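forwarding from the other thread:

> can someone predict this with adenosine-5'-diphosphate?

sure thing
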Amino acid sequence: MIEETFEDLYEHAPCGYVSTLPNGAFIRVNQTMLGWTGYQREELLAGMRLLDLLSVPGKIYHETHYAPLLQMQGFVNEIAFDLVCRDGKRLPVLLNTVQKRDASGTPLINRTTIFNASHRRHYEREIQLARKKAEEALRLRDHFLSLASHELKTPLTAILGNIQLFQRRITKEASLGERERRTVQVILNQAHRLNAMVKSLLDASRIETGHLSIMPERLNLYALVSRIVDEMQSALETRDIDVRCETQSIMIIGDEMRLEQVFQNLIQNALKYSAADAPVRIILTQQNEHIEVAVVDQGIGIPQTSIPQLFDRFYRATNVQDGVIGGMGIGLYVVNEIVELHGGKVWAESVEGEGSTFTVRLPLVTA
Ligand code: ADP
């Protein structure tokens, strides 16, 4: 039968054991520790201190963290050090120390276990490196998006301007047939779409750099929402969009252009994520000091697990990730930022398969 003795267990444990006096001088060291550091027992016990085995940064850390912590709480856990071995090589370790004190609280002995952390340190370095690479990739992506959207904006503005001009000119031109007119209209619509995408990319990079701002003024929110709905309704005759509101004067302080962008986005989403014959309702409800605008659809809905991330940049819910309904996952990110700049809040409620409600709450002008 193999017998396990305390002595053998102590000497050859898979961790180093050392006992030191309160001044750090070694009074007992196990064989594992001697094997790792290359020191003879007599050398360490001849007055050497734990501090003597530490690298220069380790010595500083010992004085500023390890010793004060030990003094204060009587123990320390998982303090990372590099031990300097007899041949000068470094051994990354983790130290746990417990201080034995007498009845009056005076420290007698420090008992320390030393864990070999070479693999762990290597692994931590790899994680750090991977993290740095990931951060760099994200920085590059943002830089690229910002650059690309800036560069795309100029030629796109020129295309839009020219095609609009061209369209105006050909309406008077008798020689052009219906087919040509339709082609021009398609080009114009797609250029508008592209322009909207580039604009939201630009807004997203403005948010990232803290440069998205609003120019607030007094405005009637009911009038603004009604105008947006009227414009959308006349462009999309087959869709059923309507506004419900008890009062026709809802005064707020806001940036008209930016709020238009918010409601256009929410209504466009409501239309995009529901069937062509499903209605979209915009309901304005006045509360004491707030106005709430709810955009309600009967569309595909949003899975509950996706709701907390909806307003994150580039996030698309799990039920649209197949790419059937196109999108970049930027609109709501920009909407959220604009609403917050107005001191408001936006949130989503939804039942998957039944529909979604996006509500924007904005402060009312009280005076
Ligand atoms: P995009 O629509 O371009 O993907 P958004 O930022 O506007 O980006 O929306 C983020 C995601 O939120 C969408 O991809 C979609 O999954 C979900 N979503 C937004 N509005 C609705 C809605 N009315 N119904 C269902 N899902 C929606």
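The chain has a mean pLDDT of 94. thats all i got for now
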